[in-house]
Design goal:
single chain, about 325 residues, about 0% strand
Length: about 325
């Protein structure tokens, strides 16, 4: 495929993908991509997920797990409960107004862990990252979760969901999710000063490791870091990290950090001769429906994200390093 054919292939998609192609790859006017984004809640995947909401404001009857799910022996994590659905809808660009009174209904919901109030957050870094971002989107009072992140950052600059069990070093997964939420807070509130230091320390945690290496040995942290897949759910990969740094650089009006060079080269190396990227893996677990293709097939979400990252990097890095 020529580049124009790849773009045409991406445009022939659900509006959840199409508006991002228009905005991020084609530089379309705001009126064009916003019109497409508005369709996410009325057609395609967004409309399908909105239709699954229960009268109680929940999906699958639970905040993080479906109601009645056996957390001890129930098999792979299901992806059908409320927090996962809200994360998808938000990332697809659904307008908060399409959710009606969902934020209000969730005020009376408690987490599976210790019956903690939903909008107050939980003890898990990743859960709190999505709750902060979802709450900012829906207009809920989630300000206390910002303080929670500042209080639970580890000495190495990262975060780790296992802190509650004594973990004292950061995790790639937890750190990326925390950074995304703190950037969402900064962009929504305009309060750079409150989270700026924490963001810089968390970014250093990843950059010192070139986005995929152990700082102690230089070895790859695991094949999971290099497998580009959508949806990634809670899990880390270098493409998601690079896309965060792209968004962060645009927000901060800063240049790409050269320590990303090896990660960018890996992303570039996975482009197929036809200009597309393949799905690296598919997570197990129940879903309402699959939003992308199976392993080894050309992925529109992965291709969109990769082209967005490489376009940013190449435009701002000498000699396309």
């Amino acid at each position: 495929m020529a580049h124009s054919e790849v773009i045409d292939w991406l445009l022939d998609s659900d509006p959840a993908i199409r508006w991002q192609v228009e905005r991020d790859l084609l530089g379309a006017s705001e009126s064009v991509w916003k019109k497409t984004r508005a369709a996410v809640s009325t057609s395609g995947m967004g409309a399908r997920l909105l239709a699954r909401r229960g009268d109680d404001g929940l999906w699958a009857g639970g905040p993080f797990f479906p109601a009645g799910w056996d957390m001890e022996g129930g098999g792979p994590q299901p992806w059908t409960a409320t927090t996962w659905v809200l994360k998808d809808l938000r990332e697809w660009g659904v307008a908060a107004s399409a959710l009606g009174n969902t934020a209000h209904k969730l005020e009376s919901v408690t987490w599976e862990y210790d019956d903690l109030p939903y909008w107050g957050g939980e003890v898990d870094v990743c859960i709190n990252s999505w709750t902060l971002s979802n709450g900012l989107w829906l207009g809920a009072d989630v300000d206390g979760i910002v303080d929670w992140f500042l209080e639970h950052q580890l000495d190495d600059g990262g975060w780790n969901c296992e802190w509650v069990d004594g973990a004292t070093v950061g995790s790639f997964h937890s750190t990326l999710n925390a950074l995304i939420a703190l950037l969402d807070y900064q962009l929504t509130s305009g309060d750079t000063q409150r989270v700026g230091g924490a963001r810089r320390a968390g970014e250093e945690y990843l950059l010192q490791r070139e986005l995929f290496r152990r700082r102690s040995t230089g070895d790859t942290v695991g094949d999971w870091a290099l497998s580009l897949a959508h949806p990634r759910r809670a899990y880390y990969n270098v493409l998601a990290a690079a896309d965060y740094f792209r968004a962060a650089a645009e927000a901060d009006k800063s240049a790409p950090d050269p320590r990303m060079r090896r990660a960018i080269a890996h992303i570039r190396s996975l482009q197929q001769p036809d200009g597309r990227w393949l799905q690296g893996h598919r997570l197990a677990g129940d879903v309402w429906f699959h939003q992308d293709v199976g392993k080894g097939k050309p992925s529109k979400f992965v291709t969109l994200q990769a082209l967005r990252v490489l376009g940013w990097w190449d435009a701002r890095t000498p000699a396309h390093g």
